[in-house]
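Predict structure. Chain length: 264.
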Amino acid sequence: MPELPEVEAVCRKLRKEAAGAIIAEVAVLRPGTVKPQEPADLNQSIGKIIVNIERRGKNILLHLSGGFVLHVHLRMTGNLFVIPDARFHSARVRLYFRLSDGRGLVFEDTRALGRVNMHTETALDSLMEKIGIEPLSKAFTPAKLAAMTKENRKPAKLFLMDQQHIAGVGNMYAAEALFRARINPRQPINAVRRKKLEALHKGVVDVLREGLKDAVRSYSKPGSYQEMDFAVYGRKGEPCNVCGRKIVRIVQGGRSTYYCPRCQ
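Prediction complete.
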């Protein structure tokens, strides 16, 4: 599932290729992609200029002229990118915008779980108000993390994945950050000692920066893939790189959690 690094990589590529383009046509090939809206709602984007592309957490926001915003959430398998000719898109494309120069801004989504919606700037503000702090911003400090966790009893892994706390951290990077901080994912976050919270802050920031570097590289060239090495994520039954103990998989909040029972 695309998390902060992958979504930011998509945005950076779009800023180079789509900013300043004019939307000439909208084609919704799968109506479910725009739920709870109707396909016709996206017609308001026709004739508008893509002024700016912004990321908030895992959300992609295409700010258009006239005070409108296209809100895109990639979910599990979504991707948003520009192709040379809108007519020649893949069968996995659920929605596309034909730009005035004939290119296509396409939303590709194998599992068809992603969403594309149209909002006014004013309505968007209320939709985004519950998004948590950006972990790569200057505002995210060890002291801020400590204050956020003080009265929170959620297991550490579920706390990190709650987008109302920290925006953009998902399953993969949460597991890796907890491993680096040597924190058991089931431990209540308010019971984690200050020193370990400082290590967790560093783990979150470092793993996201590493993931971003890898994501930007992989998204810049068609056919390339991310090559980031994970210490625990997806490695059930394999030996821990630090202690040799087998990596364990448990389920938290309906998602797989991987950790080392000795190191954490």
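Summary: The beta strands are 23-28, 50-56, 59-64, 68-73, 78-83, 93-99, 104-109, 115-120, 248-252, 255-259.
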